[in-house]
Amino acid sequence: VLDEQDSSYTKHILTSDLTVDINARPQILVSHGKWFAAEIIKTKMDDTMDNYTLCGCTCMPGFDDKDFECAKRSYLIEKFPSLKDLIILLTPVE
């Protein structure tokens, strides 16, 4: 989760197996005005390439297309230069 107001980055581990990490959670709340992305990570229990995830995003109040915005890679790199490699990994080519 990237927060432009305080230039912070917070990494969350989302999993149903809460023994994976002391900070593991089954879900998180991402407040308005923050950027988020996700990736599947390999764990000790994974021994195949058949990894997948089902995730969703619930918006409150209701979602409206006119309010939707995808961050551009170049914009995020400008705002968070120390996270350039991560941003490149998690954003599409412009």
UniProtKB/TrEMBL annotation:
<protein>
    <recommendedName>
        <fullName>DUF985 domain-containing protein</fullName>
    </recommendedName>
</protein>
<dbReference type="Pfam" id="PF06172">
    <property type="entry name" value="Cupin_5"/>
</dbReference>
<dbReference type="InterPro" id="IPR039935">
    <property type="entry name" value="YML079W-like"/>
</dbReference>
<dbReference type="InterPro" id="IPR009327">
    <property type="entry name" value="Cupin_DUF985"/>
</dbReference>
<dbReference type="InterPro" id="IPR014710">
    <property type="entry name" value="RmlC-like_jellyroll"/>
</dbReference>
<feature type="domain" description="DUF985">
    <location>
        <begin position="5"/>
        <end position="70"/>
    </location>
</feature>
<dbReference type="InterPro" id="IPR011051">
    <property type="entry name" value="RmlC_Cupin_sf"/>
</dbReference>
